[in-house]
Amino acid sequence: MSTASLVQAAVTDLNPAAGTARLIAVLNVRVSTGDGAPSAKQARLAVDFARDGETWKIGGVQAVGS
Questions:
Q1: Pairing of strands 39-52, 55-63
Q2: Fewer CB atoms inside 10 A, N or C side of the chain?
Q3: What is the pLDDT of residues 1-55, one digit of tens each?
Q4: List of residues 6+ apart from 40 with CB closer than 8 A
């Protein structure tokens, strides 16, 4: 089982005219396999958004850094 909680997020790029945006998010992730103790790590994700009418939709997610 995996769980994640948001630590911090920030908009790094916003182009209202083009209808695009990018957000960087830092997550605390805990992964448990079988009966072992869960392992914890931080994950950094870049999330691309595109506007569709009045709604912003996720266009892609990429891991950032290590």
A1: antiparallel
A2: C
A3: 899 999 999 999 999 999 999 999 999 999 988 888 889 999 999 999 999 999 9
A4: 28, 29, 30
For tokens 């908009």, the residue is 11
Taking a C-beta distance cutoff of 8 angstroms, is the pair 30, 11 a contact? no
User: Element (H or E) spanning 48, and its range?
Assistant: strand 39-52
DSSP 24: E
For the chain, list the domains and their CATH numbers: 2-63 (3.10.450.50)
Position 5, amino acid? S
- Can you tell me the distance from the alpha carbon of 4 to that of 44, in angstroms, rounded to the nearest whole number? 12
